[in-house]
Every structure is written in C-alpha cells, then in structure tokens.
Specification:
The protein is of the alpha+beta class and 328 residues long. The chain is built from 9 helices and 11 strands. The protein has a 5-stranded antiparallel sheet with strand order 6-5-4-1-7. It has a two-stranded antiparallel sheet with strand order 2-3.
Length: 328
C-alpha cells in the first residue's frame, strides 16, 4: 500500500511539472507588429507605450495619496495640485534624457484648468486605475495582511476557549464534515496562490499588464493568466457548494466557527504558497496537498441516500440526524 501511495504521489509531481512547463511556454502577451498598419505615428507610439508600460494615452487613474503636484512645464517650479480621490487622465508623454531620477514624464489632467507634468515613477506610486477589478487588486494587495491577522487571532482565541471547555473542534481534513468541498476549496486557494506567485515572481510584466488592463474572461488572456482567473471562478463556485453542505450538516453556531477555521486554513494556504513560489517549494507542496486531497476522497465513505425533508446525506434509511425526519 505504501508503494502504491508513493507511485501515485510521483505521478502527481510529474504531471504538475509537465503542466508548469506548458504554462511557462505561453504566459506572455504576444508582441504585435504594427509596422504596416495604416495609422498615424502618434497612435503607433501610443500602442508601443501600452506594450512596454501597460497603459497609454487616455488611461484613467484615481489619486490615492493626499496630494500629487503637477509641474507646469516648460515653466519650472510652478505646480498645480490634485488630491486624494481626484480622477486624472493621461494626456501626453515626454522624455527628459537629463533627468537622473526618471527620464519619462507624463502629462495628466483632472480638468481643463488643472493639468501638468509628473515623473512616471511618481505618478504610478500615487495613483491606481479606475477599473473596479484593478481597484480590488490594489485594495487586496495593500490590506490583506491585516485581515489575515484579525481572522487568525479570532480563530486562535476560539480554539483556546474550546480547548478549555474540552469540546470537540471541527477542522478541515483532521475532523472534517462529510464533504470533500472544504478541502477542495483549500486546494483551489493553493493553486490560485501558486499561479499568482508564479506570475509575480517569473512574469511580472504579464501581471502588471493585467493590473492596468484587467479582464474577468479567462479566454481573452494568456494561458497562465487565464488559468489563474479561471481558478478564481472555480473557487467561488466551490465556496457556494461548501456553504450548502456545511449548513445542512451542522447547526448554525458550529457552522460559523467551522467557516472561521476554513477561512484561516485558506489564508494560511494563500500566504504559504505565495511566499514559497519564488523558491520553487510551493510546487512540491501543491503536489503533496493534491495527493492528500485525492487520498481523502478515496477513504470518504459513500452515501447512498438523502433525507427527503432536508436533503442531508444518509448512509442508510431511517431517522435523519439533522432534522429528525423518518426516511423509509
């Protein structure tokens, strides 16, 4: 039995390596040859800038710092201010070869009277795209650590209290409910985190382009990025299945604490797999997690019946342990 388990695990690792090799071979946005296009040179320059810098003319941004000074070139040392929450649009680009900080300057405008020039590096550190997906990415990237700590501390306190009261604690995998969906959700979070870490570590330009030009349609994106977006959609669907199974099997209070533990497990998976991707460790950990999930599914007992009243899965006919209905 041990040999069979080792063989199965080896197959999972080999399959994962093959999939990763395929993904890395097609994870970039394709370069487009515009030399023969019948368009103006300004438009060609704008499209070239989009390919290299991931945004271009008429791109809309929202200011996220308290204030952003816009220099009134060619007159120096005269500024107009835009403030937090203001929306600006990219109007023009200019190269300053003598600037030792950043040679690329961008002209942005809030309105007809409030516009000016700013270094690109300063601009991008002070704004975010106005697209709702880009704003979610920015918000999640800047505040998820705090959310993780709050959830983790709350669940740790709960574990401590339950231990003091000597009550049994429901946990994913160790003392799980009769459903494969909670652990499958952890697996999907691990897959998404590994893909996200892969994009950030090995193809950052692809992720940056997605940040400025997001899409929720995985079929419009490069393969690796498309699979990442698809994994997010699959994770949402699995979450619905988890809630459906959970509240059928547990009472409300127990289900809430189980969800708290599941959320903590998902967050731990997220951080673990993101932080270990750059060291290639996450791919091995992902193979191990998938192996544990497959093993758990194989040993999970089958359910032949469902309660005719509440729909709870039953091993045999008789009194439903959830609602007390008699099934014959």
């Amino acid at each position: 039995m041990k040999r069979k388990g080792f063989v199965a695990f080896t197959r999972v690792v080999i399959l994962a390596l093959i999939v990763l090799t395929t993904l890395f071979s097609s994870c970039h946005y394709p370069e487009i040859d515009r030399s023969e296009w019948d368009i103006s040179q300004k438009t060609k320059d704008s499209l070239s800038h989009l390919q290299k810098h991931h945004y271009t003319l008429n791109a809309n941004f929202k200011v996220i710092v308290d204030s952003l000074p816009l220099e009134q070139l060619p007159v120096k040392d005269i500024y107009r201010q835009v403030y937090k929450g203001d929306r600006v649009v990219v109007a023009e680009f200019m190269t300053q070869p003598t600037d030792s900080i950043d040679s690329l300057w961008v002209k942005v405008a809030r309105d007809q009277n409030t516009q000016g020039w700013v270094r690109e590096s300063e601009l991008l550190n002070s704004v975010m795209p106005t697209d709702s997906i880009s704003q979610f990415i920015h918000l999640f990237s800047s505040s998820h650590t705090l959310y993780f700590l709050v959830v983790f501390i709350a669940f740790s306190i709960y574990i401590f209290v339950r231990a003091l009261l000597r009550k049994q604690v429901r946990l994913v995998y160790f003392n799980d409910i009769d459903s494969a969906f909670p652990m499958l959700l952890c697996v999907m979070v691990a897959i998404s985190a590994t893909l996200y870490g892969t994009l950030q570590s090995f193809v950052p330009d692809t992720w940056e382009h997605f940040y400025y030009n997001p899409s929720i349609n995985p079929f419009r994106l490069p393969l690796l990025l498309g699979i990442f977006v698809a994994s997010i959609w699959i994770g949402i669907i699995i979450s619905v299945a988890v809630l459906d199974d959970l509240f059928r099997q547990l009472n409300f209070l127990t289900a809430i604490f189980y969800l708290l533990g599941l959320l903590t497990g998902c967050i731990l998976c997220y951080f673990l797999f993101i932080f270990t991707t750059s060291f290639y460790v996450s791919y091995l950990l992902l193979a191990i997690l998938i192996y544990l999930f497959i093993r758990r599914v194989k040993v999970t007992p089958g359910y032949k019946f469902r309660c005719g009243d509440c729909g709870t899965k039953l091993k045999e006919k008789g009194i439903c342990p959830h609602c007390g209905a008699i099934n014959t």
